[in-house]
Specification:
The chain has about 220 residues and is of the alpha/beta class. It has a single domain, classed as Spore Coat Polysaccharide Biosynthesis Protein SpsA, Chain A (Alpha-Beta Complex), CATH 3.90.550.10. It contains nine helices and eight strands. Strands 3, 4, 5, 6, 7 and 8 form a six-stranded mixed beta sheet that branches. Strand 5 and strand 6 form a beta hairpin. Helix 3 packs across helix 6. It is globular and about 55 Å long. The mean pLDDT is about 95.
Length: about 220
Amino acid sequence: MLQWVHERARASKAHAVLIATDDERIAKTAQSFGAAVVMTAASHATGTDRIAEVSRTLQWDPDEIVVNLQGDEPLMPPMLIDQVAEVLELHAGAAMATLAAPILSLEEFFDPNAVKVVADSEGRAIYFSRAPIPWDRDGAASGPASQRSFSGARKHLGLYAYRVGALQKLATLAPTQLERTEKLEQLRALENGFEIRLVDAAERPGQDVNTPEDLERVMSQLTTK
């Protein structure tokens, strides 16, 4: 799976592709297929913190843009890696950019592994949640289980672009209450006033991997290609 993710990243317009890890097993696997690896501390609670360490180690310029592609996204289209970086380039005042896609079913709407996001009229993220948002009050007259409406709901795609300076500042901040409650690191940015730009993905990505069942489905797709 790691090699598939690496190949997706290499197919984008990124100037360099690195695998950041604290695990020697992952490092050896990555090096076996020719990937560049940066070892990091094992104490990082989030990918944001890990990438911030890499940016300091490699002394990246504060204005550089770095994209965090998580290792559980073997079906991520390379064009989305380019898209999220381009969104951040277009909005000089933003610290981060990320992507979303329409929610397609009630099952996805209620799935806590499918993170939902809402934004303002200018495309600035307002909130991310594992809960079903926005909630149609009139669509659930008999209580939550009776909800049949998910119109306008958007799923957050776990793909981020950061300005290096903002990334390093964010990593110095303590986890916030909302971040700890929802287990969503991007809430630390919102609670501290960072602007996150959000757009709909130009193409819907394939299945990410959150559970063993997801892994089986993804591997089935990869091995039949």
